[in-house]
């Protein structure tokens, strides 16, 4: 008796109407599959050769042939490569593809019995946690994509078979796996929202690092060193990144940024994605206050330094205070605007954190107005806990300036309260009205 450990199974409800596939489904592939790959392919018994009825082909990928760690997607690839490539043309409608742990099948596999047709048919989420299709593999994959994948894989198969005559079997296997990566990546991007989440995040960081490599020499050419004017270069380099991540910005209140001279911009801080919104509206001669750790962020850190970003040590209030007092002086001397995140840290809890006092001390010290800018909540497209990063729209609302002329340190508390209340109600307002995710990846 062959004992299979619980594995993943995959189902293709093909709706195929050709006699050839009906044959394959009734058994001829089972032998090939089992012998070559460790597959059991079965189908619904009620399907006959001539009937134009949906056929479910279901493979079970166990660990009996030493492929213990093989991913179900690889198993799917094998199925395509060896059995289904020729029959895909016969598909008559999009094939919903689902992966799930089928405990009934696993139990039967453990006992060494074959999978009955009813158990073999792909099941759908019935709300039961154990049986539920994992969120990562629950999306329908369109027929044309599967066709493309199949053609790609069959082409790969030919290539690697040819190469195996000269380079040997192990390198052909390696090639096989290598060539499998691009379509699998596409399939994962298509089907797994968790994968999309990590992919987009990594892409964002990597892309910013690459852009920064470009930004460094450009900044040096423009200003010869650290200068607020370099922010123009950085701004123009970062502006396209929103398109790559599927984000859209809707900005209102542009007129409030027309204020002349230095001012302090304060905004809420949800994620490093805020940089994209910041670059959307960043006025000329404006730089930021940031935590000092950012300077160590490789090429991005160097770019930040070149852009004139003021780094503070949040853990040492006295240090931070003196750096900000110095910044107030520079603001006036060099006619610079400063962008501060008064929450002092990232926050995505659907509300604003209590503000720190530095930004208001800064504005009072420089006697410069405060311009609050509110970013709508990212929760309609970006959820860190749920690992969701869809495309979406972000509203940026620029609020009227708050004057600080004649104010002293005594007024800092009331200035802070006033700004907080204005921003909080604007945040709730823009977050409420923001359109829901315009991506298609929500479950
Ligand atoms: C193409 C290239 C591509 C490359 C990529 C491009 C790169 C991207 C480009 C650009 C990206 C830039 C993106 C940057 C994003 C970074 C964001 C961050 O890093 S957010 C974290 C840091 N930000 C802050 O922390 C806010 C500022 N913080 C403050 O202002 C705090 O107030 C701080 C640190 C100064 C002190 O914080 P406390 O935690 O100690 O708390 P408190 O209550 O505010 O202050 C304590 C006491 O100190 C007084 N105080 C504070 N500041 C004062 C001051 N300036 N003068 C006098 N007293 C002051 C206060 O009045 C308070 O005293 P009493 O309670 O009133 O007695
Ligand atoms: C090796 C690290 C590479 C990092 C590359 C990052 C590329 C994106 C550049 C955007 C910079 C945004 C910086 C930012 O948003 O920092 C977070 C702080 O505000 C708040 O931090 P925390 O939550 O208080 O620790």
Automatic annotation (TrEMBL):
GO biological process: phosphatidic acid biosynthetic process
Keywords: Acyltransferase, Lipid biosynthesis, Lipid metabolism, Membrane, Phospholipid biosynthesis, Phospholipid metabolism, Transferase, Transmembrane, Transmembrane helix
Phospholipid/glycerol acyltransferase domain ranges (all copies): 263-378
Reactions it catalyzes: 1-tetradecanoyl-sn-glycerol 3-phosphate + (9Z)-octadecenoyl-CoA = 1-tetradecanoyl-2-(9Z)-octadecenoyl-sn-glycero-3-phosphate + CoA; pentadecanoyl-CoA + 1-(9Z-octadecenoyl)-sn-glycero-3-phosphate = 1-(9Z)-octadecenoyl-2-pentadecanoyl-sn-glycero-3-phosphate + CoA; 1-(9Z-octadecenoyl)-sn-glycero-3-phosphate + (9Z)-octadecenoyl-CoA = 1,2-di-(9Z-octadecenoyl)-sn-glycero-3-phosphate + CoA; (11Z)-octadecenoyl-CoA + 1-(9Z-octadecenoyl)-sn-glycero-3-phosphate = 1-(9Z)-octadecenoyl-2-(11Z)-octadecenoyl-sn-glycero-3-phosphate + CoA
Pathway note: Phospholipid metabolism; CDP-diacylglycerol biosynthesis; CDP-diacylglycerol from sn-glycerol 3-phosphate: step 2/3
Keyword Acyltransferase assigned: yes
Pfam entry (one): Acyltransferase
SMART domains (UniProt xref): PlsC
E.C. code: 2.3.1.51
MF GO annotations: 1-acylglycerol-3-phosphate O-acyltransferase activity
A GO-annotated cellular component: endoplasmic reticulum
Taxonomic superkingdom: Eukaryota
Residue spans crossing the bilayer: 177-198, 204-221, 294-312, 359-378
Family annotation (InterPro entries): AGP_acyltrans (IPR004552), Plipid/glycerol_acylTrfase (IPR002123)
Chain spans, region Disordered: 111-132
Domain comment (free text): The HXXXXD motif is essential for acyltransferase activity and may constitute the binding site for the phosphate moiety of the glycerol-3-phosphate.
Family: Belongs to the 1-acyl-sn-glycerol-3-phosphate acyltransferase family.
Biological role: Converts 1-acyl-sn-glycerol-3-phosphate (lysophosphatidic acid or LPA) into 1,2-diacyl-sn-glycerol-3-phosphate (phosphatidic acid or PA) by incorporating an acyl moiety at the sn-2 position of the glycerol backbone.
NCBIfam families per the UniProt record, alphabetical: AGP_acyltrn
Name under which the protein is recorded: 1-acyl-sn-glycerol-3-phosphate acyltransferase
Organism field: Merluccius polli
């Amino acid at each position: 008796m062959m004992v299979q450990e619980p594995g993943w199974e995959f189902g293709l409800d093909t709706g195929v109407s050709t006699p050839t596939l009906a044959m394959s489904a009734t058994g001829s592939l089972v032998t090939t599959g089992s012998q070559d790959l460790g597959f059991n392919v079965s189908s619904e018994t009620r399907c006959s050769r001539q009937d134009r009825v949906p056929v479910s082909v279901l493979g079970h990928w166990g660990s009996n042939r030493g492929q213990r760690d093989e991913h179900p997607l690889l198993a799917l690839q094998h199925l395509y490569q060896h059995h289904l490539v020729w029959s895909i043309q016969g598909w008559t409608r999009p094939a919903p593809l689902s992966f799930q742990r089928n405990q009934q099948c696993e139990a039967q596999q453990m006992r060494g019995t074959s999978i009955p047709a009813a158990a073999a048919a792909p099941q759908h989420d019935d709300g039961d946690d154990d049986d539920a299709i994992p969120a990562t593999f629950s999306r329908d994959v369109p027929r044309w994509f599967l066709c493309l994948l199949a053609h790609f894989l069959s082409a790969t198969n030919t290539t690697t078979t040819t190469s195996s005559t000269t380079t040997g079997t192990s390198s052909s296997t390696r090639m096989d796996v290598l060539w499998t990566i691009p379509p699998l990546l596409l399939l994962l991007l298509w089907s797994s929202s968790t994968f999309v989440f990590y992919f987009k995040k990594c892409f964002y960081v990597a892309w910013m690092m690459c852009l920064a490599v470009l930004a460094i020499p450009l900044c040096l050419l423009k200003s010869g060193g650290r200068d607020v004017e370099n922010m123009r270069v950085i701004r123009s380099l970062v502006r396209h990144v929103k398109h790559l991540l599927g984000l859209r910005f809707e900005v209102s209140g542009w007129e409030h940024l027309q204020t002349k001279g230095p001012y302090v911009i304060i905004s809420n801080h949800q994620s490093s994605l805020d940089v994209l919104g910041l670059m959307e509206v960043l006025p000329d001669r404006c730089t930021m206050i940031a935590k000092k750790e950012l300077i160590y962020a490789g090429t991005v850190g160097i770019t930040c330094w070149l852009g004139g970003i003021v780094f503070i040590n949040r853990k040492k209030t006295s240090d931070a205070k003196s750096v900000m007092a110095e910044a107030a002086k520079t603001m006036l001397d060099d006619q610079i605007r400063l962008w501060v995140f008064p929450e002092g840290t990232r926050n995505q809890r659907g509300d604003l954190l209590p503000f720190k006092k530095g930004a208001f001390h800064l504005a009072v010290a420089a006697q410069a107005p405060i311009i609050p800018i509110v970013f709508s909540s990212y929760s309609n497209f970006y959820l860190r806990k749920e690992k969701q990063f869809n495309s979406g729209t972000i509203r940026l609302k620029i609020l009227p300036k708050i004057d600080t002329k004649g104010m002293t340190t005594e007024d800092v508390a009331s200035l802070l309260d006033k700004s907080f209340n204005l921003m909080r109600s604007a945040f709730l307002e823009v977050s409420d009205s923001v359109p829901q995710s315009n991506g298609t990846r929500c479950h």
